[in-house]
Structures
1.
Amino acid sequence: MNKTEILVIDDEPQIRTLLRINLESNGYKVIQANSAKEGLVFSASHPPDLILLDMCLPDASGLDVLKQLREWYVKPIIILSVLSSENDIVTALDSGATDYLTKPFRTGELLARIRSAIRLSMASENMTLITCSNIELDIVARTVKKDNEIIKLTQTEYNLLSLFMKNHEKVLTHGYILKEIWGYSYQSETQYLRVFVGSVRKKIEDDPNNPKHIITESGVGYRFQ
């Protein structure tokens, strides 16, 4: 029996009923909130394993709720919304959403994405050592080795490299990286990010001018390979 708890934050009774029936029939425990305020209270008093969040709530923007949750909540948040523009989706993902599905959604696809998000979340919780090529990151000891030699990093450099390595092979946008490392007020400071990426490259790359690990995705962000 699956004991995973899912909090549904959505003001549409029909959607909540549909989600409850389908999720409970698949073994999940479902908690429901019909407003932003109620959702934030429930999530804080009894943090669930995953949150399904609507972007259009009666008392607040779902995006604002997402940002408030990401100040402390680290588990998956999947957006379910009628908003389907590329800008809406990118903004939500940059603000910390794990995934994004537009309404109407297919139940099978939603269940698959929930399973994937939970698997990744559990793997991340159990992860203590990440090795990518000749770079080794020890999350518990907060140390980095290159070719088995300790590399001295500042706290910010370590946090930046840790973010890259935990998301290796994924393209991380400038805004997402800046928000994760320095906070929301720095999301437009791409030059600030460029300086720190440069300093990390000097310490981990054999040739910082031709990096093999921290790859620039022009106009978008960076990818660690």
2.
Amino acid sequence: MQAEKKQSWLAIWLSLISNLLLTFIKIIIGVTFKSQVLIADGIHNAGDVIASAAAFGAMRISNQPADDDHPYGHGKAEVLGASFVAVILALAAIWTGYHSVAALLGPAPEAHWLALVAAVVSLVWKQGLYLYTLRIGKSVNSKSLLATAYDHLADVYASLAAVIGIGLALIGEAYELPYLVYGDPAAGIIVSILVMKLAVDMGREAVDVLMEKNVKQEQIERYTSLIQAIPEVKRIDRLRAREHGHYVLVDLRVSIPGEMSIQEGHDVSRKIKRAVMDADSQVDEVLIHINPWYNE
């Protein structure tokens, strides 16, 4: 567990430092050579700095133990962090789309090969960060890290569009193809659409967790099989499970033989809890209510 926490913090710090460096590089080169898609991508990265900082704060809060005011723990802080990232992405998409349309309607800016180099570096860098952060986020089931990974994916889209757009503009200038010189702002519009879709998907997932939507049906079926395999369990009366940030809470009502003693019922509850938690490391708590069952 300690090793997983170290990997999580490393992923967040790498994301934060990378976003700071890429913001500086893209905005400086974009402004210098008037590349609209690179400037837009740089502004997007500036939003990523805020998003990474939010993820950092959310992870610190979510890892705090349960207390009297928060008996179920602080896991939903990560979901709030993911929601914030989704809002940042949506605002970046709107900003990028607006300025790209404005650039498309005006005179075409002159493309420069340094802008293309910056876009290629960003593409490779962000693809690596996306794969690394996604792997760590899935291994620890961290909503903040997964949101950061998808934020990197949005940057991959943006950088890819920038590479294509700037490349087309350079080709258009070299071979005097008038329509290709508008490849830069056209790519910015494509970026805004892709980033907005990603923001909507992330926001929907965060809302589902905040509204305590049931976990996937496959997980419910898996828990059901584990519980039914315990001989003393005669019937599952209700089974619910919800995500609480990076962990899962399970609520369960089961029927066991009514002639069993309180101690025996307690032992059955412990057996159920152990079976579910051993099978799924994401489960942090299993709350069990025992009902009597009679063979009528």
